[in-house]
Amino acid sequence: MLVLGLESSCDETGVALFDTEGGLLAHRIHSQIAMHTEYGGVVPELASRDHIRRVLPLTEECLSEAGKQLADVDAIAYTAGPGLAGALLVGASVANALGFALQKPVIEVHHLEGHLLSPLLSEPKPEFPFVALLVSGGHTQLMAVRGIGQYELLGETVDDAAGEAFDKSAKLLGLGYPGGPALSKLADSGDPTRFKLPRPMLNSGDLDFSFSGLKTAVLKLVNEQSPIDDTTRADICAAFQEAIVDVITKKCLAALKQTGMQRLVIAGGVGANRQLRAGLDEAARRRKLKVYYPPLALCTDNGAMIAYAGAMRLQYARDSYGYGAKPRWDLASLPAV
Ligand code: ATP
Ligand code: MG
Ligand code: FE
Hints:
Blueprint: E1 2-7, E2 12-19, E3 23-31, H1 33-37, H2 44-66, E4 75-81, H3 85-102, E5 106-110, H4 111-117, E6 130-135, E7 140-147, E8 150-156, H5 162-172, H6 180-187, H7 212-225, H8 230-259, E9 263-267, H9 274-287, E10 290-292, H10 303-312
Parallel strand pairs: 1-4, 4-5, 6-9, 9-10
Antiparallel strand pairs: 1-2, 2-3, 6-7, 7-8
Helix pairs in contact: 2-3, 4-10, 5-6, 5-7, 5-8, 6-8, 7-8, 8-9
Bound molecules: adenosine-5'-triphosphate, magnesium ion and fe (iii) ion.
């Protein structure tokens, strides 16, 4: 079965073709970051309009790379939510229109399930059950995953998401938007021992996170050190990154211990962070646990994870067409496969 996947929940237009026999045949991403940079964040109306411009050309590129035609597509999966309403409507409209025109079923995909299952696009892929850490721009959650659609929330952030903390701290340091990758790059040349930043909720005894205090601590440092030179900026980045990696690593280990599971799966944009990967790999090696990641290019938003999640949910495909955008949508409400 050949599944076309469309992602348009925020500021990336993603399109992919996933074949249940042949695997991922093609995927394309257009990031709108450059367009939103001058506003310091995503402008929803601009995002929707850009998705409209990009989605069909990207679809054509995927089809041509895979040597397929629209008529070969067996089902169309799209991100139905959660996300920006107008942006979601673009993917929903295109998917439903294509489905109607081709008389092929459509599948609503939950964006976070897409992220969560993206490590299954890597080899070797993790077997169920596993603990999943979802660390993205909008979420920081630990889940016990026993199968597709069987997600038990173990803990989550009580305030900012990890990616949000990266981006907000980067902004305080004058690194632009979204500054996560830039902050991480600068941290490589910094000294993580010069400044000591807090490890919020490290010993809270539960699996929840809190990152807003860390951002405030960065703000305080920036003010104290002002005017800030390049070395100091890099040292703050290094201290910040070390604090985040430390907290996330310890909470992941605690989640594995609590569930008695041996496998840890990382998903979402912050999963691209090299220091985090190094910290988790080292901790896992010492305890003979296994850690799995999505391919680097599939950590942030993409169509491949949506096509894949859609392929896993073919049984829920429907051939009644409508708009079906769900800006708010609880992951726990998904049916098991
Ligand atoms: P959600 O999926 O929760 O709705 P989102 O789709 O915006 O949020 P993703 O696309 O998964 O989130 O990830 C984007 C986030 O990942 C941004 O906050 C970005 O700064 C962060 N990020 C990306 N690469 C890195 C990196 N190397 N180090 C740290 N953070 C990173
Ligand atoms: Mg994005
Ligand atoms: Fe995302």
